[in-house]
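Entry 14: structure prediction run for DUF4333 domain-containing protein. Input pasted below.
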Amino acid sequence: MTQPPGGPPGWWRPPGVDQGPPRPAPHQPQGPAPNYGGSFQSQYGGLGAFGTPSPEQAPKRGKRKTLLVAGAITFVLGASGVTAWLLGAFRGDVLDQESLQHGVATVLRDSYGEHDVSNPVCPDDQPVRNGTTFECTVEVSGESKSVSIRVLNEKPEFEVGAPK
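Run finished. Output tokens:
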């Protein structure tokens, strides 16, 4: 009888023909038959290929790589925090220096009758907090004068003192 195409010789018997106990083909390894319940193991991992690797197969990951990654993350976060602090992200609301200087000149003209007011200079980054006080300088009729400023509320509204 002929063999089916593609099969190894000797593995197929026609039904009803008894040729004795089955013999393995000469190229098949001798040994226990594989257990088909999921415990098949081979040098390539078999069904357990995605399980926990043995200590010989485990990749060598040292503490050095972990420490380097943790150090890099800490450095980046720290540098970001310092940069944000230097740029003023944590200082809160501050008075706009240009608007403040314009407001001082306007109050001196309208409320104090000083018509020749020029070059108001106020310190920048003054906090918008009730009760904050600071000094601005202005030129009144060509003479440098000091003006005290007091923040009244969070809107911000401020009080301008008389030039001294």
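Notes: Residues 63-92 form one domain. Will compare against the previous run tomorrow.
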